[in-house]
Amino acid sequence: MASRSIKNRPGIKKKHPSIGFLAVFTVFLAVIVAGFSGVYALGSSWIGDLEDYDVSDAGQLNSSLPSIMLASDGTELARFQVEYRDPVELDQISEYVREGSVATEDERFYEHGGFDLAGIARAVYVNLTGSGKEGASTITQQLVRNTILADEMNDISFKRKVREMYLSVKLEEQYSKDEILLMYLNTINYGSGAYGIEAASQRYFSKHASELTLAEAAALIGIPQSPTYNNPIDHEDNCLARRNLVLDRMLTNGYITQEEHDAAQAEGIVLNTTETTVDGLEKYPYFSSYVRDLLMDPDGDYRYSDDELFKGGLTIQTTLDVDSQEAAEAAIKEKRESLNPAIYGALVAIEPETGYIKAMVGGEDDEWATQKLNLATGERGVPNPGRPSGSSFKVFTLIAALEAGISPQTMVDCSSPATIPNTEYGSTIPPLENINNYNYGTRSIQRAFAVSSNTGFVRLEMAVGIDKVIKVAKDMGITSALSANPSLTLGQSNVTMLDMASAYAVIANGGVRIDPTPVLTITNSKGEVIVDNTTPDTSLSKTHREQVISPEVAHAATEVMKSVVNTSEGTGQKAALPNGQVVAAKTGTSESYKDITFCGITPQLATAIWFGDPSNQVTIPTSTGADDVFSRFMSAVLDGQPTEQFPQAADPTYKNFSDPTYHVGGSASSSNTDDEKDDEKKKDAEDKDADKGKDDPAPTPTPTPTPTPTPTPTPTPDPTPTPTPDPTPKPDPDPTPTPTPTPDPGGTTDKPAS
């Protein structure tokens, strides 16, 4: 290589002309037509806002720094940027790049003081005589144009040129030549979204800038003159011609030998491209896009602009636990393999004591390109996002009843079918049925919850008050609109799994609600922490902590919810965990089997799961539940961890409640003394359905005539026939439902009780 190497040229600061206006004024006179009146006053006005501009912070010259999103363990999830940029040090850049850039863009770079009068004169002569086309901007001027004055880049005027020259002189007084060259090479546009030489090397040749050959370096050096038309992906011929010009100039300036020049020009352009990530989302796009949208929501807590997120150099550490996320995706995917391809799944898992979102499945990652709707959070901007939750919504009626002082051992009429008065609306609720029209008779609220009796819980909801149920749901974290009608407790309003997981987390956290958050901390480009959600209600936190239900009510609700999983009649028995970790939960199935849900809590996590067809066309097989998905997910997450207990508290203060209108009142001396009439009813239905298919709801079995209950303070149970040897009902965990009649507005006629 020739001796005129950049490394032999000292990168020290040199004495430069004064940066006073006189120097700029002299250049101004040399460039514009002589005799232009008032030039001094005009020039002063052009640079007035720049006189106090501080160029001492080199970081600000990199006008666009990517923001990086990380999982809780530091795994990179996303990189948000308007351009692909990866700054490096000067010794990480091939000497060919450094020398070739100087030879091509500014051969007097080491001799001028920011702008080059000789270069300007030469450019004017070449352009006016038609002997070619040559730019007059130095490397320092190009750096200023692409960073400090980036907003003025398209302003082709003397004013911009003067401002550019003025700042170039200031830069030259502050930095060495090598420092300026490095900033230039780290910021210049090399086309195809690549900014900076390292990004360009990776984009076109999939190698580091230090590894570039002479021919490769020359090809990249030629691109910035016209990034659109000189990049080798779209315009190889243009790139080749420009590359050869770079090699010619390197030869002329003594940076390479004739042999090196000829060998490099004989080479073709052999690309080995690396595609940049689509919209910056690298892993778990449903979660990453949720965080991105949350940060940029103009009505949200963060309200970052495009420039702040895509140019601000933020580091966003999220709450996502990679192991939990992997377990969630595997559990959803395994379940989907047994279902119609049109059926999708969603899952959200939240740590109750912190509100941290540990896992979120809004769809399958490999389908992100075509299915961008996040099924865990619903479509942003839609007034009522989400899907019907089914009977998992009954937990809010349970808690409203507990808050009203109604004991879980209070009796409720769960007979089916049932015609229930609606005094609040002055009408009668359309006839209701339990699943398969099972007649559960009169039983405790706890046992009605375990078997998910529709008739019993609509009666309880009406006795407590629909407005009370809505208030509880809202206080616990349901953000979507809720319809104030008797079908509310049956889960016909749209909700998101994010909201459901957040609400159930309140129960697991002793009644304390902490805003769910996917963000742990945010650090700015200077390394300063600007958001810290590790402690709610602090100056840097965006989360809030509030006791929304009492510890006593939360404890009582947990005890009732355990019966869904750990009793023989519970609808969520498959959710039981093999390590013995206690689980409290509620299952849910929407009308016509279009949605199934499972919301379960342990002291470690609150998890909400949904399966269904987003287009609401395909029904789910009646034998399908989501409790097994919960067990599969939680078993993986808690593997090797010790079991924990829910927060303990005393029982709430209960009163002797009685509502003869809705047949709620009285107490069961034990859970085994409730009306056993439902045993024979279920056994008869099971016998009739034993040979029927499971993909479609079975025909409605002929119900046993049920006398209209007498409206007394304590409803008298129907006469009980001689019980079977086993007094405890043992329903099929996945009973087959009846056909779905057309529902009447405000009620439901075939609400599966799961």
Automatic annotation (TrEMBL):
Please report the stretch or stretches of sequence annotated as the Glycosyl transferase family domain.
74-250
- The membrane-spanning stretches of this chain are 21-42
Q: Where is the composition biased (Low complexity)?
A: 745-754
Q: Which domain of life is it from?
A: Bacteria
Any idea which UniProt keywords this protein has?
Carboxypeptidase, Cell shape, Cell wall biogenesis/degradation, Glycosyltransferase, Hydrolase, Membrane, Multifunctional enzyme, Peptidoglycan synthesis, Protease, Transferase, Transmembrane, Transmembrane helix
Q: Which Gene3D superfamilies match?
A: Biosynthetic peptidoglycan transglycosylase-like, DD-peptidase/beta-lactamase superfamily
Which segments carry the region annotation Disordered?
A: 643-754
Annotated Gene Ontology MF terms? penicillin binding; peptidoglycan glycosyltransferase activity; serine-type D-Ala-D-Ala carboxypeptidase activity
Spell out the Pro residues composition-biased ranges.
698-744
Biological processes, Gene Ontology terms: cell wall organization; peptidoglycan biosynthetic process; proteolysis; regulation of cell shape
Q: Among the entry's GO cellular component annotations, what is one?
A: outer membrane-bounded periplasmic space
UniProt KW ATP-binding keyword: no
Q: Does the keyword Transferase apply?
A: yes
Q: Which reaction does it catalyse?
A: Preferential cleavage: (Ac)2-L-Lys-D-Ala-|-D-Ala. Also transpeptidation of peptidyl-alanyl moieties that are N-acyl substituents of D-alanine; [GlcNAc-(1->4)-Mur2Ac(oyl-L-Ala-gamma-D-Glu-L-Lys-D-Ala-D-Ala)](n)-di-trans,octa-cis-undecaprenyl diphosphate + beta-D-GlcNAc-(1->4)-Mur2Ac(oyl-L-Ala-gamma-D-Glu-L-Lys-D-Ala-D-Ala)-di-trans,octa-cis-undecaprenyl diphosphate = [GlcNAc-(1->4)-Mur2Ac(oyl-L-Ala-gamma-D-Glu-L-Lys-D-Ala-D-Ala)](n+1)-di-trans,octa-cis-undecaprenyl diphosphate + di-trans,octa-cis-undecaprenyl diphosphate + H(+)
The UniProt entry, under Pfam families, shows: Transgly (PF00912), Transpeptidase (PF00905)
Task: Please list the residue ranges annotated as the Penicillin-binding protein transpeptidase domain.
Answer: 345-595
Basic and acidic residues compositional bias, start-end: 679-697
PANTHER family found in the cross-reference section: BINDING PROTEIN TRANSPEPTIDASE, PUTATIVE-RELATED, PEPTIDOGLYCAN GLYCOSYLTRANSFERASE
The text of the family note is: In the N-terminal section; belongs to the glycosyltransferase 51 family.
What protein am I looking at?
Penicillin-binding protein
